[in-house]
């Protein structure tokens, strides 16, 4: 199990865009505690879901 500071870092987005850092998001935060979420990109909807085996699937 990672130390507490690593867990906390995983849950928070990285510094703001433009400083060279890539934003990071913990999947449970992104999915709001559920198993799927709809992501909007360029007018299209994408479904991000966790499978029964714990894998991530992104579909249009």
Task: Describe this protein's structure.
- It is a single chain.
- The chain is an alpha+beta fold.
- It has two helices and three strands.
- The chain has a three-stranded antiparallel β-sheet with strand order 1-2-3, with no helix packed on it.
- Strand 2 (44-50) and strand 3 (56-59) form a beta hairpin.
- The longest helix is centred in the N-terminal third of the chain and has 8 residues, at 4-11.
- The termini are far apart.
- The model has no long low-confidence stretch (mean pLDDT 82).
Task: Show the helix and strand layout.
Blueprint: H1 4-11, H2 27-30, E1 36-41, E2 44-50, E3 56-59
Antiparallel strand pairs: 1-2, 2-3
* Uncertain stretches: none
Order of helices and strands: HHEEE
- Report the sheet-strand fraction: 25-35%
Number of helices: 2
Helix content: 10-25%
What is the distance, rounded to the nearest whole angstrom, between the alpha carbons of the first and last residues? 34 Å
**What characteristic shape results from the CA principal axes?**
globular
Q: How much is the average pLDDT?
A: 82
Rg of Cα set: 14 Å
Structural class, from secondary structure content?
alpha+beta
User: Could you give a short account of the major beta sheet?
Assistant: 3 strands, antiparallel
Strand order of the largest sheet: 1-2-3
Q: How many beta strands in the DSSP annotation? A: 3
């Amino acid at each position: 199990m990672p130390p507490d500071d690593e867990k906390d870092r995983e849950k928070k987005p990285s510094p703001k865009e433009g400083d060279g850092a890539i934003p990071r998001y913990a999947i449970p935060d992104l999915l709001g505690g559920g198993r799927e979420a709809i992501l909007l990109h360029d007018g299209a909807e994408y479904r991000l879901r966790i499978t029964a085996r714990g894998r991530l699937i992104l579909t249009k």
